[in-house]
Design brief:
The protein is of the alpha/beta class. The protein has helices at about 15-25, 45-50, 60-75, 85-90, 95-100, 130-135, 150-160, 205-220, 235-245, 260-270, 295-300, 305-315, and strands spanning about 10, 30-35, 55, 80-85, 110, 140-145, 165-170, 175, 190-195, 200, 225-230, 230-235, 250-255, 280-285. The protein has a 7-stranded mixed beta sheet with strand order 3-2-4-5-7-6-12, sandwiched between helices. Strands 9-11-10-13-14 form a 5-stranded mixed beta sheet, sandwiched between helices. Helix 10 (about 260-270) links the parallel strand 13 (about 250-255) and strand 14 (about 280-285).
Length: about 325
């Protein structure tokens, strides 16, 4: 069982991503990085300095960036294609579909600073639709690590997977939530806390907040199970089915729109059952988020420990 009581140190997952990428590149000369004039924001400065001939900066040309990545992958390289998530996924969706997923080019698409991490820059820079439209693309894995340890493991897995994958690398700092000795396994969710009243299924930056919500509910005598659903596609269907069978309701939490994202994926499984359980899907509704810093936006949409606990309380 994981807990987050009291003051907790937080970490930038982009740092873990960059350190692990450099460590892997030290061992495997096939690993290259491709970016869209985002060396700084993708945290690739260290990689560039260590491997100047293995970083390809295409400039602000995301469609070219993904195409170059696909070509490198099909030529035997292991490309990590990095860019701010809204521009990587929005501008280059056709290339992600045709050049990467349809062609099964083993590209690691790294969506940096997803969700509402760019806060004050507004809806043009918020990446709340990425999970939704990428879930609709066949043959593409989607992974959203919850903390630095899981980010490192996901990077290692992606480098050797030999399959197209979108890796969602968070910007704002989060605490460590992965228990010692618990390894990342693609397509398999992690149960971080047991409970038989309600299940909270969270992904990425929302996992730590789900654990905090579970502590609030525990103080009220409500047992909340917390699931870290790091892999969005393919979803761990058996984990969802256990929640349907063993708890009275499911709350999903994502730093993304609820239209077609994690909540929708869980809901599709739930609704196929003979006796589906009630659900609450927390995230951004189908609207552009207002402009404000990340903390303001998350509070605005109820993506806080208190907001998650309130949803769980309704179903317990």
């Amino acid at each position: 069982m994981s807990t987050l009581a009291g003051p907790t140190e937080t970490f930038d997952c982009r740092v873990a991503f960059a350190e692990e990428l450099i460590a892997l590149a030290e061992q495997d000369e096939r690993i290259v990085a491709v970016c869209n004039d985002s060396v700084g924001s993708s945290n690739l400065v260290g990689f560039r300095d260590r491997f100047p001939d293995r970083l390809i900066n295409v400039g602000i040309a995301e469609q070219d960036m993904v195409g170059v990545g696909a070509g490198l992958a099909l030529s035997g390289y292991v490309p990590f294609v990095c860019g701010a998530a809204p521009f990587l996924t929005g501008r280059a969706l056709e290339q992600i579909k045709a050049d990467v997923a349809y062609s099964q080019a083993p590209v690691v698409l790294c969506g940096m600073s997803p969700g509402m991490a760019y806060g004050e820059l507004g809806p043009t820079h918020h990446s709340i639709e990425d999970l939704s439209w990428l879930r609709a693309v066949a043959g593409l894995g989607i992974v959203a690590p919850a903390d630095p340890a899981q980010t490192r493991e996901a990077v290692r897995w992606a480098a050797s997977a030999g399959t197209p994958v979108f890796l969602r690398v968070g910007r704002f700092k989060v605490p460590a939530v992965t228990p010692p000795g618990v390894a990342f396994e693609f397509g398999v969710a992690q149960e971080l806390r047991s409970g038989d009243a309600v299940t909270i299924v969270a992904t990425g930056s929302m996992v730590s907040r789900a654990l905090q919500a579970a502590e609030i509910l525990a103080d009220e005598g409500i047992g909340a199970r917390v699931i870290n659903m790091a892999t969005i596609a393919p979803l761990d269907e058996e984990c969802v089915l256990r929640a349907v069978r063993q708890t009275r309701g499911i709350v999903t939490v994502e730093e993304a729109t609820i239209t077609g994202g994690l909540g929708a994926a869980v809901g599709e499984i739930n609704l196929r059952q003979a006796r589906p359980v009630p659900m609450r899907m927390l995230g951004s509704p189908r609207q552009f988020a207002p402009t404000g810093d990340t903390a303001f936006l998350l509070k605005h949409f109820g993506l806080t420990a208190e907001g998650i606990a309130a949803a769980g309380r309704e179903l317990a």
